[in-house]
Amino acid sequence: MGTELVFLATGRRANTNHISDLPLKLASTPHGGFVVSNTLQTSIPEVYAAGDCVADSPQYVYTAAAEGQLAALNALGTLCGREPREIDYAAVPWVVFTSPAVAGVGLGLSEARAKGIDADASRLPLRLVPRALVQQDTRGFVTLIRDKSDDRIVGARVLAEEGGELAMEASLAVQYKIKAKDLAAMFHPYLTWNEAWKLAALGFNKDVETLSCCAT
Predict the structure, then answer these.
(1) Alpha-carbon 34 to chain mean position
(2) pLDDT for 53
(3) What DSSP string runs through 109-162?
């Protein structure tokens, strides 16, 4: 693979130094991120944190917005005696805007197995996706990861020019614990990118290369 530039990413450090000037001693990591509970509560019960200053935040603008809303609701809720809500990152989609794009959601195959899940994967090259053939761009693939014990989708990975657009259906599948067989049975319009998910779901039990157009 030829390249023009190589970027080395070394991570980000939370800009929380100014907090040290305040009479607050919040538990934090060496990188400056505040340690919080699933309700975004810091080590000081009356203080909540959200966004890039949270140690384990995915650090996306859309997760920061959700964290900010939840932190505010939980902080106010404690004053009213309401039970706090928890943040859940299990189905957060992510995208790297390269060409082709890289995207994903949930667990990768090795991550799922490391968690003790009896997982397998169905990898579909884009040369088997009609939309990719029409657009004459078959670079990449889509992959579904499922829990074999109950057939539920636990993750997905994408390498495709439209990877960011493909990520959302996979996110819904992970969020709502959709089974691979149910995803395969859903109607997916012909010549759409999301048809790739139907074909990948079929791939758990069939050889997609031998199927005819719009096969089920």
Answers:
(1) 22
(2) 93
(3) HHHHHHTT--EEEEEEEGGG-HHHHHTT----EEEEEEETTTTEEEEEEEEETT
Tokens of 128: 């088997």
**Rounded mean pLDDT of 67-85?**
91
Residue at 154 is within a domain: yes
CB atoms < 10 A from the CB of 181, how many? 13
Cα 74 to Cα 67: distance, rounded to the nearest angstrom: 10
Residues 120 and 57 in one domain: no
Q: Does residue 199 contact residue 208 with C-beta atoms inside 8 Å?
A: yes
Residue 4 pLDDT:
86
Query: Among 53, 74, 89, which residue terminates a domain?
Result: 89
Question: How many CB atoms lie under 10 A from the CB of residue 202?
Answer: 21
Taking only the tens place, the pLDDT of each residue in 7-59 is 777 777 888 887 767 787 899 998 889 999 999 999 999 999 999 999 989 99
Same domain, 81 and 155: no
Q: Is the pTM of this model over 0.85?
A: yes
- The boundaries of the domain holding residue 129 are 93-203
Query: In the prediction, which pLDDT does 214 show?
Result: 63
- DSSP H stretches of helix in the chain: 61-80, 109-114, 130-134, 163-175, 180-185, 195-202
